[in-house]
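Kindly inspect this one:
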Amino acid sequence: MVEGFGARLRRAVAARGPLCAGVDPHPQLLRAWDLPADAGGLETFALTATEVLAGHVAVVKPQSALFEAHGAKGIAVLERVIECARQAGALVLLDVKRGDIGSTMAAYARAYLGEGSPLAADAITVSPYLGFGALEPAFALAGETGRGVFVLARTSNPEGEGLQRADSGGRTVAQSVVDDAAARNAGAVPLGAVGVVVGATNRPGELDLAGLNGPILAPGFGEQGAGAEDLAPLFGDSLPDVLPASARGLLKHGPDPAALRAAVLRTADELNRVLT
């Protein structure tokens, strides 16, 4: 029997803490590292960052779009990042935010969750705004291969507020996403494989996460404004299943590997002091 993503994630977090380190090769970060904003600079940046970060965190989260922007060469670098992180013992959460219907969604699932695919990660992000049920191909294949799926619920960007807080039959759209994810995770032990994305900069009390029984990816931690002390009021009893995500807050300390390593260890220690 294939081990579920929830069990693998719990074990990784127990060993390395909850910090999720983003590998986001923004052009401005490449320039800050004195690298050209081309495929060669991308390769140096992404592999250097991954080699340092992946040995110290439970989860590495590459931002797929910033690799895709460089075409085939960028995708080749992304494949190497996934393999590098995996060899260092980190789980890979690929931030692709895919969401479609029918055979197209099935193709996305095969690309990112299928056994043997060069882009297969341990988990991916997906968008439910063509309908939560349209994501079924991803849920099904993730279940078969022991991978995870994180569904956008209440994101940290202000543009999402109007849609995500809109009424959906007496609850917000965001809460309906959480509830649908909870239904997928019902009975899973020790943790379900369907997570949600809830920004760390949101207001406490907006969502009821008590019945989720799944992981929570919390972007907005670090450079985007949320600190470790903000997490407990926001997530309450669900805090043990939260993965605070930081990218620029860590990556700005490069290109010196020692400075980057010190930043990730310092951030991980801060989270451990507050959350454990």
